[in-house]
Amino acid sequence: MRVLLLLCGCFFSGCLVLLPPDPVMTSVRDELKGGKAKCLVVFLPGVRDEAEDFDEKGFVAALREKNLSVDVISAQATMPYYTQGVLVERLGNDVIEPAQAKRYRQTWLIGVSMGGMGALLYSHAHPDEVTGVLALAPYLGKRPITKEIRAAGGLASWQAPAKPEKIDVMDDGVYQRELWRWLQALTAGKEKGPELYLGWGQEDPWLAEPCELLGEALPESRRYTVPGGHKWTSWKKVLDQFLNDSRFAKSCAR
After folding, report:
1. How far apart are CA 199 and CA 134, in angstroms?
2. What pLDDT score was predicted for residue 12?
3. What is the C-alpha separation between 241 and 62, in angstroms, rounded?
4. Do 217 and 158 contact (CB within 8 A), yes or no?
5. CB neighbours of 182 closer than 8 A, spacing ≥ 6?
6. pTM across the whole model
7. Contact at 8 Å (CB) between 224 and 238?
8. Per residue in 151-193, pLDDT tens?
9. Longest CA pairwise span in the chain (Å)
10. What is the distance between the alpha carbons of residues 118 and 128, in angstroms, rounded to a whole number?
11. In Å, how far from its chain's centre is CA 251?
12. Nearest to residue 140, comparing CAs of 41, 213, 226, 83?
C-alpha cells in the first residue's frame, strides 16, 4: 500500500517530501453544545490539506446549520500516515477509538480525495464500527485496475480475486485489488460494511472515471455528481446535497 499511496501523492501534487508521521495523530474537535450527541462524524483530509481545512471550507458549519446531533472530529490524517502504512492503525488508536468511548449511536466518516480512500481503508479494516461513509472524489488506485473493471462490464461483472489471507501493505497491486474486491462485495450486500455514499465533480480530470465506475454499483440515492473539478467547492456542493437527503441527515437529526 505504501507504493500505491506514494504514487497518489506524486500524481496530485508533484512528489512530496516523505516525512515520518507524527507519533500521535492529532485532531480538531467541535462538540455539540447543550447535550450528548447521537452521532460521531470524522473528517479525513486530502493530500495537501490539514484538519483545520474542514472548518475553513465551511464543512463543520454546514453540519451545525442543519442542527444535527453530532460531535465532529477533523483528523490530521496527513500523507505520511499513508506512505508508512499506519493510517488505519493510528486513526483508530488516536482518534476514533477514544472518541467512541462516549458510546455514539452511529459513526460516520467523510473524506476528500486521499481522505476518501482513507475512509474506505478504515471501514474495510473495521466493517462493524462504521455506520456510513461519504467518500468525496476518493482516490481508488491506479488506472490499469479501473480499466480492467470497465472492460469486464463494470464492478458487478468483474471477476474479483479471492480475498487474501494476509495483505502486504508494501504490495500496492494486492491492496488495491482487495479494496475493489471488498467494494464489489459491499455494494452487492455480500460482506459487512458501512452505508456508502459517493460524490464527485463532473469535470474532475483525475478521478471522475473511477468514481463513475464505483457509482454505477451504488443506488442512485447514494451517489452525487455536481459541476466542477477536483476541488473543495465541488465537494461542498456534494456535502450540502448529502445533508439534505441521506439517511445520515435523518438518523443524526436532533
Report:
1. 7
2. 46
3. 11
4. no
5. 124, 163, 191, 193
6. 0.93
7. yes
8. 999 999 999 999 988 766 556 678 899 999 999 999 999 999 9
9. 53
10. 16
11. 20
12. 213
User: How long, in residues, is the chain?
Assistant: 254
Listed in sequence order, the residues at least 6 apart from 157 whose beta carbon sits closer than 8 Å to its beta carbon are none
pLDDT tens digits, 16-69? 446 889 999 999 999 999 999 999 999 999 999 999 999 999 999 999 999 999
- In this structure, is the dihedral angle defined by the CA atoms of residues 196, 134, 9 and 92, taken in order, positive or negative? negative
**Amino acid, res. 89:** E
Q: What is the CATH number of domain 2-251?
A: 3.40.50.1820
Helix (H, G, I), strand (E, B) or coil at 58: coil
The residue behind cell 467523510 is 110
Asked if 160 and 222 touch (Cβ cutoff 8 Å), the reply is no
* Distance of alpha carbon 97 from alpha carbon 101, whole angstroms: 7
**SS3 label, residue 91:** helix
Is the CB of residue 222 less than 8 Å from the CB of residue 193?
no
